[in-house]
Design a protein that fits this description.
By secondary structure, the chain is α+β, with helices and mostly antiparallel strands. The chain contains 13 helices and 4 strands. A 4-stranded antiparallel sheet has the order 1-2-3-4. The chain folds into 3 domains: 81 residues, no CATH class; 206 residues, no CATH class; 32 residues. The protein is 40% helix and 13% strand. The protein is globular, with a radius of gyration of 25 Å. α3 crosses α4, α4 crosses α5 and α8 crosses α9.
């Protein structure tokens, strides 16, 4: 056993060295810097921050570099690092109505109060490879566009004035913290939203798409999608007031959904909500659709049996780190387990008559 352990240890060290060499690639090609990844692969950085539950573009870029571009591995690295950080306080709730928006659109009102701001988006680009990007040259110069800094009212506030949309529940209770406490079911909406926002983007996208195809009868309109920066404030006990400690870039999506009413609620629009670190609008929209699908019970709706309405199915399978760990552990040594099953199959086959065994084969 001692020889086997030492041999395995040496093999693992060699594997680490081999990985480092592969990560670097051809030494003749200039090495990517963390700053380059942070600035030029911003959407990947945003996903790692969102699903890693840590807002730090530099660390997210470092994790992407270390993981060779494997975003799930990078998310794993960020979450592992996050567990080493001390927690010394909580910020005040963010006011997204005061967000400095550099993108803000509504699919429900053409003349939305505050205006439509297209911002940086792939929505209007041709999906054709741009070979000019392979050539070195000066960066394109975009027209100077300052973000909208005055408070931008939420679209749903205008629907709310007419009683056309459900009232948003208000509470001063401290929500549970999924990063410090394990997920327990049934989960309230605050805990579900935490789980979805750090869930795998592809999984949440698939769940959201299923609701649009009829699995949950979820017909949504994007009331508003906004991307911008919000100030983060923290109460300082020694000062007796809150101070701004920084800014975070967020994507927020609010959907309005058809609702014919129930035994307890009148016909009205209902809400779906998504909030994600960085510019992550696909995830925010998908999150809002899944949030609405999971609210069937509190709205008095029937459960159609759709996967997106199954709280346990969605929340327990959305986490890509847990899924990766369980999936990839099967490639580790299972020699003893397999040998025991092999012996069992041999014993079972030994008790089967020869003619029956030949017919099965």
């Amino acid at each position: 056993m001692y020889v086997a352990v030492k041999g395995g240890e040496r093999a693992i060290e060699n594997a680490h060295a081999f990985l480092a060499e592969d990560r670097r690639g051809d030494p003749a090609v200039p090495e990517l810097s963390v700053a380059q990844i942070r600035e030029q692969m911003a959407l990947a950085v945003n996903r790692v921050m969102a699903e890693g539950s840590l807002y730090d573009p530099d660390l997210a870029a470092l994790a992407i570099k270390q993981a060779r571009g494997d975003l799930i591995e990078a998310i794993f690295l960020i979450r592992a690092y996050r567990t080493t950080l001390p927690r010394f306080g909580s910020s005040k709730p963010l006011d997204t109505g005061a967000m400095a928006c550099h993108r803000r659109i509504s699919a429900t009102f053409k003349d939305a109060p505050g205006g439509q701001v297209l911002g940086p988006t792939f929505d209007y680009t041709h999906r054709l490879l741009d070979f000019k990007l392979m050539a070195e040259g000066e960066a394109p110069v975009a027209p100077v566009a300052e973000p909208r800094r005055e408070p931008t009212p939420h679209i749903t506030e205008f629907l709310n004035k007419d009683g056309m949309i459900e009232e948003e529940a208000q509470s001063d209770a401290m929500p549970p913290d999924l990063t410090r406490e394990p997920l327990e079911l049934p989960a309230d909406r605050a805990l579900r939203l935490q789980s979805i926002t750090r869930g795998d983007e592809g999984f949440i996208l698939g769940m959201a798409y299923s609701t649009q195809r009829g699995y949950a009868r979820n017909h949504a309109f994007v009331a508003e999608l906004r991307i911008g920066t919000c100030s983060v404030e923290m109460e300082i006990p020694e000062l007796g007031f809150a101070v701004e400690i920084g800014e975070v870039t967020l994507t927020e999506c609010e959907t309005v959904n058809q609702f014919k009413g129930s035994k307890t609620e009148p016909a009205q629009f209902t809400r779906g909500y998504g909030l994600v670190f960085g510019q992550t609008e696909r995830k925010a929209i998908a999150m809002a659709l899944v949030d609405r699908a999971l609210r069937w019970k509190e709205l008095g709706e029937d459960n159609s049996g759709a996967p997106a309405q199954d709280e346990e199915f969605v929340l327990y399978h959305a986490d890509n780190i847990q899924a990766t760990g369980f999936l990839e552990h099967i490639k580790l040594p299972h020699y003893v387990d397999f040998q025991s099953e092999l012996e069992l199959v041999r014993k079972l086959r030994a008790g089967v008559p020869e003619a029956l065994r030949e017919a099965a084969e």
